[in-house]
Amino acid sequence: MKMNSINNPCPWHQHRLRRDLLKGAMITAAGWALPNWGALSHSRTIAAEAKRAGKRCIMLYMEGGVSQIDTFDMKPGRPTAGPFRPIHSTVSGIEVCEYLPRMARHTDKLAVIRSMKTKSVDHGIGGYHMHTCYPSSEKVPHAEIGAMIAKYCDNPESDLPSFVKMGPAGCNAGSGYLGPTYEPFTLDTDGRLPGFANPSVSQEVQDRRGKLLEFMEQQHAREHPARPFAAHREAELRTIRLMRARKAFDVADAWNKARDRYGNTPFGRGCFTALKLVEAGVPFIEIGHDGYDSHNDNFPVHKANLKVLDPAWSSLLEDLQDRGLLQDTLVVWTSEFGRTPAINGQGGRDHFGRAWTVVLAGGGIRGGQTYGASNRDGFEVADKPVDEGAYFATIYKAMGVDHRAVHYLGSRPIWATPDGSMPIPELIG
Amino acid sequence: MDQPFANSRLMYSLPWNSAYITSLAFIGNYQVAAANKNGDILVWNLDVPEGKTPSPARRLVGHSNEINRILVTPDSMTLISVSSDHTVKYWDARSVEGEPGTVVLNDGFVPKGVTEKVDKVPEPPEPIQANVVIQRPLRDLRNHAEWIHGLAQTPDGKTLVTGDDDGVIIVWDLPGGRELRRWQATQWISSLGVSPDGKTVAASQHTPFIRFKSGLEEFVPHFHFWDVETGKSRKDLSKEIKEGMSAVRYSPDGRWLVAGHGNVQTEKDQGKILVIDPADGKKIREFPGHPVGTNDLAFHPDGKHLFSCGRDQQIKVWNLESGKLVRDFGKFADRGVWIGAIAISLDGRLLAAADRAGQVVVYSLNPF
Amino acid sequence: MVSLSPRFYLTCLAVALLMPGWAQSEDRLLRRVIDRETQAVWADQKIAPPGRATDTVFLRRVYLDLVGMIPAYDETVAFLADNHPSKRELLIDKLLADPRHARQQAQVWDILLLGRSPNGIGHPNNRTRFRQWLGDQFQNNVPYDRFVQKLLTAEEDGSQLFYVVHRDADELAAATMRIFLGRQLQCAKCHNHPFEPWTQRDYYGMAGFFVRTYVKEGEQQDHVTRFFVAEKSTGDVSFTVVPKDAPPGFKGTPVKPKFLDGEELHEPALPQDFKEPESKGKTAPPPPLFSRRQKVVDWITSRENPFLAQAVVNRVWAQLLGRGLVHPADDFHSANAPSHPALLRVMQAEFVEHGFDLKWLIREMVNSNAYQAEDTGAVDDAMPKFYERARVRPLSAEEWLASLHLATGLGIESAVKSAPSGDMLKYLGQPTDGQGAFQGSLSEHLFLHNGDGFRGLCHPRNGNLPEQLVKSEEGWEAKVERMFLSILSRPPTAVERQQFVQYLNPEPSDAKVRSQRMEEAFWVLVTCSEFRFNR
C-alpha cells in the first residue's frame, strides 16, 4: 500500500487544479462559469493559446492495415511492387506513391519510419497493441495513447474533452486504468457531435435547474469534502461547459470553405475538425480512416483510399503550419500493421507486421527523413527495427510525456511503455 | 444438343506466373493473347501437333504498367490494350515479324506461403524460358490521364470506347485511332460496353472502397446509358444497378446487354449477372453468377450462351434464353485463386481462361 | 503472516476464549472486538473517534450495502419514527433476511468474479442465470468454503460462468489465487515475485492444475447456454524462462502441478495406450481419469488452508467499510501489512469458528461503530485509512437504477426487477480508475442531462411520484418533505424546504408550469452528488 502512495506519479495534482477551478465557478454570480471558448476566434490568439497550453497530438489511424509498399516504402521494379509509381518529393531520396502527390510536397515535415516490426497482426489484437503499446493477451485494462496524452497534456481550463475520437475505431480500450476522466469522447464519423451531447432541454431550463442543482451541491459540499463528491461536481461542471462550448465542434461554415482542399469526405471533415479542436486546445484527437484491409484488390482499394487521405492529411499539415501550430502538434499516421509484400491470388495483400511503415510529423519530430529500412523486396527489416515500445516511447518523448510513467491497477504497476522501451533520438527534433 | 458443351475438355495448361493475368483475347481461332499486371502481353499459337503443349510465340512490349483489358478487332488484324500506364495501344495482331527475344515464364513470386507467418521467401525455381518474337505497338494513344479499365468496340470494327478512373469516357474512330468525343462521368469507370449500332455506351461507375461508407454519398455506384452523339446520359439505371460492375458486354447481335457484379470486395451473396434489355434498360433476368464476384463475361458465337468466370474459381455457362445454368467447369486453380479472365475463339470451339496465380488454360468446347 | 500456520490462529482463538468472562459477555461478539480494535488504533494514531452516523445517514448506507437500493418512502418514515433503542440492530436483521440481500450479494460477487464487461459469455441471459445461481447460494446462506467449492467444481446448473470468462490456465491460476486467497500470483509469471518467496516455478505449478480444464458448450434454451466445465486427462504447462531469453524453437519444459508453498501433486500414471476420448455433440464431456482441478479446489477450500478465510473476511470488510484491513483487499503480501493486524486475526478465526457463515460476518461488521461512523468531517479521502469517517462510494449502476425506481415512487417490486440498459452500464458502470478512485465522466453527465431513459423517470406520468405530487392536494411543504424522504431518505433542511417550495410553485404558475417544475426538481435531486453516492 505504501508503495502506491509513494510511487504514484500523479496523486491529486490535476484534481486540485480542477477543484480550484470549480470553486471559482461556484461563486460566479450566474451560477456557472462562462465557457472560455468565446475569445478563441482570431488565429494568432489561437496559436498563442495552444502554445501556452502545451502539446497536441493528432493521430490518423488507417483501420485495416495500410500497405507500406503502396505508400511510403515503394519497391519499384521489384516483383512485390504494385501498379503504383513512385514520385519525387520535396526531400531528395524520399519517394512516395503517385497517389500521394500533395503529401509529396510535405516530406520535409515527415519522419518516415520504414522499419516497424510489430507482433500483433490481426485487427483486434493489432489495433489494441498499436493503441496501448501492450498486447491484449495480458488482459489488463490498458489505457489508449489518447488517454495517456490526455492525462499528461490536458489543459484543465479547457471546456472541451481532452481525448476526442472520430471515425471508425481501431481499438475500444478507452482510458482503461486511467479512469473515466480520460475516456475518449467519440464524435460521429464526420466529426459532428454525438446526439446525446446536444441539450435535451432549453437553455432556460438548463440554467434554472442548474442553479437549483448548484444550491444542493453547495449544501452538501459544506460538510462533505471527500474527493468523490468533488469529482462528481467537477464532471457536471465540465459537462455544462462542454455543452456550452459545443459550437467548437460545429465547423459547418468554415468547412464550406475548406471542403475542396480537404476533400468532401468524412475523413476530410474529420481532419478539418481536428484542426479546429487543436486550435481550441484539445490535446489528443484520433481520426479513423477505414477500409484498408485489402486481402482482395489491394491496388484499387488503396488508390481509392489514398485519394481521400492525400488531400485531407496534406491540408491538415498546411493549415497547422499556417497557424503556427505544427511545431506543437504531433501528427501521427499509423495503422494496426502493414500489408504483405507478396501479392496474393486475389490481387490483394495480407496482414504483415514484420516490416512496415508509420509516419510522424510536426511537434517534436525532426522531419525530412526516413528512419530504418526494409530489405529489397520488403519482406524483412534491413536496418534499425522499431518495435511497439520504441514507437510509443518516441511519441511520448515528442509530447513531453514520461514514457515510463507508472500507474497502478490495484497494486499492479503498469508503465506507459514496457521495460526497455527507448525513444529514438534521431527522430526527435 | 441436350447437353451443350458436355464434352468440353481441358486441352492445355500454359504457365506464366510473372504476375497475375488480367485479360485474354483470341486472335482468330488458334491464337490466344494474355495480358498481365506487369504490362506484358504474350501470344500463344495453339495450332500445335497432337500431344505437344503450345509455347508462347510473341511478346508485345510497350506498356509500363498493369494492362487492364485487351480485345481484338473483328477482322482479327489489330489487338488493342488499355493500361494503368494511362495509354491505349494498338498492336499488329497478325504479324509474326519482330526482333528475337525471350520470356521467363516462372519468374513471379509464388504468393502461396509468402505471408506473415513465413520467415523466408521461397527459393526461385529453375527458370523456364521461351524464345519469342518481340513486337512493339503500332499506336500509342495518350489521351487518358488515369488507369483505363473500360474498353469496348462495335462489331463493325469502326468505333472504340475507353473509360478511365477519372471518369473520362472517350469515343474513338477505331481504325484511325482518332478521338471523336469525350465526356466526364463522376466516378471511376469500372467497365463499359458499346451497343453494336455504336449509339450507346453502357458504363458502370464505381469507386472501390472496401465497403460503402456512410457520408460518402457522392461515391455511390452509378450505371448509365450514355448517348454517344451528345455525351449525355440517356438513361440512369443507378437505382436498379446499385453495385459496381466488373464486366459490361453487349452481345454482337445487340440482343442482350449483360453486366457482372464483381468489383472490389463483393459480399458473399452477390456477384450476380444481370441480363438487361439494351433498348429500355429493363432487367430481363438475373443469373446467380459467382458468389463473391463475377470477374469476366464472354458471349459464345452461337448467340445463345454466356460464359462467365469469377472469384469462386469457377467458369460457368448460362443459357440466355432459358435463364438456366448449362454447366460449370469445376475448379482448376489453387484454393482461393480467382479466375480473372476468359475468352472464346471466333469459331466458338476453344475457351481460354486465366487464373490470378499465373496460368492460362485452354478448353476444347466441342459445342456441336 | 503468510507463512503462519492455521494452528497459530486456533491457538490465538483458544487463548481468547479462555480469557475470564469472555465467553459469556457481549464483549465476545465480534462487533465489540471490532469496536475495541478500531478504537485502539484511533487512540494510537491520535485520531478523534468519529461520531455516530445519524439515523438518516445510517439508514441509506445500510440499505444500499445490504439490499442494493435506497429505502422506499414508507420504510424511511417507519424507521425514523421508530423509538426502539435497538432499532438499528433490528433493521440489520430485517435486511439480512430480506430476499433483496441475496440479490445484492449476487451482484457484488458477480462483478467480482466476472468483471464488469467480460468477453465470451455470449447472450446476457447467461449472466442473468449465473446471478440467479449466486443468489440461490446467498439466499441459502451456503457456508463460504462450500460456496467456493461449488463455484470452482462448477457442476451445478448455472454455476459455470467463472470458467467461461477465465478460460486459460494462466488466467484461472491468477484469478483463483487473487479472488479466493487474496494473493497476486501473476507477477510471478514473468519473474519471481518481488515480495514473496514465490518463484515462476510456483506460478506454473499452480497453472498446472488448470491446464487441462476447458469449457464446452451444450444446448441453448431461451438464450441460456448449458456450459460444461470439463477436464482432459492429458496436457501440461510448459515453463519457459522469460520468453525473450528463450532460444528459438524452445517450447519450454513441462511442469508438474504444485501447490503454492507446498508439495508437487502426486498423480497416477496414465495407462500406456491412453487416448484422449473425443467429446462430440452437445452433451457432457467424459470426466478425466484423474482430476487435477478437483485437487486444487480441495486445497483452496480446505479448512487447513488459512488463506481462504483470511482473504474473505478482509474482502467482506472492504465491501462494507471501503478499505480492506489489507488494502487492496486482494493483495496480501509481506510488505503490505494490515492496518489492524489483531482484528484481522480474530475475524479470521471467528469466521472459521462460525462455520464460514457470511451472513453472521456481515451482521457483526454492520453492527460495529466503525461501520456506523458519521459521514462528515475534514478528511477528504474516499476511504480513510483508519475508518475515522465512513467511506464514500458511488452507487453501482444496478443500485443506482433500483434506487431511482424507489425515488420516483415506482415501488420495491419495480426496483427489484430493474436492470440497467447497456448505456447505463457504459456511462455509470465503471466510474473508477485503476485503483478504485471515483472519477466522474462527461458521458455520465451527458447521459444524465440528455439521456431519454433517465429523463423519462423524472417526468410526471403513470402514477409515479412526480405525478402523485403534482396531483396531490397536500401543501407544498409536505410535498417537498415527501420528495426528500423518497429520494434522499431524509427530510429537507429548512433552507432546502424553502428553496424547493419556491421552485415548485413559482408566481405566476399553472398546472403545466408546475408539472414542468416538478420534473426539474426531481432531476436535480437524482442528479446531485448526494444521490450518486452512498452519501
Largest sheet of chain B: 6 strands, mixed
End-to-end separation of chain B in angstroms reads: 7 Å
CATH architecture classification of chain B: 7 Propeller
End-to-end separation of chain C:
35 Å
Helical/strand content category of chain C: mainly alpha
The tally of strands of chain B reads: 30
The CATH top-level class label of chain B: Mainly Beta
* Tally of structural domains of chain B: 1
Low-confidence stretches of chain C: 1-10
Count up the helices of chain B: 0
The overall pLDDT of chain B, averaged over residues, is 90
Question: Strand order of the main beta sheet of chain C, please?
Answer: 1-2
Descriptive overview:
The complex is a heterotrimer of chains A (429), B (368) and C (535). Chain A has 429 residues and is of the alpha/beta class. Chain A has one domain: Alkaline Phosphatase, subunit A (3-Layer(aba) Sandwich), CATH 3.40.720. In chain A, 35% of the residues lie in helices and 15% in strands. Chain A has 11 helices and 16 strands. In chain A, strands 6-5-7-1-8-11-4-12 form an 8-stranded mixed β-sheet, with helices on both faces. Chain A has a two-stranded antiparallel ribbon with strand order 2-3. A two-stranded antiparallel sheet of chain A has the order 9-10. Chain A is globular, with a radius of gyration of 22 Å. Residues 1-52 of chain A have low confidence and may be disordered. Chain B is mainly β and 368 residues long. Chain B has a single domain (9-364), classed as Methylamine Dehydrogenase, Chain H, CATH 2.130.10.10. Helices cover 0% and strands 46% of the residues of chain B. Chain B has no helices and 30 strands. Chain B has a 6-stranded mixed β-sheet, with no helix packed on it. Chain B has a 4-stranded antiparallel β-sheet with strand order 1-30-29-28, with no helix packed on it. Chain B is globular. Chain B starts with 8 loop residues before the first strand and ends with a strand. With 535 residues, chain C is mainly alpha-helical. In chain C, α3 (55-67) runs parallel beside α5 (87-97) and α4 (73-81) packs across α22 (476-487). The longest helix of chain C has 17 residues, at 511-527. Chain C is globular. Among the domains of chain C are: 101-301, no CATH class; 397-532, no CATH class. Chains A and B meet through α10 and β10 of A and loops of B.
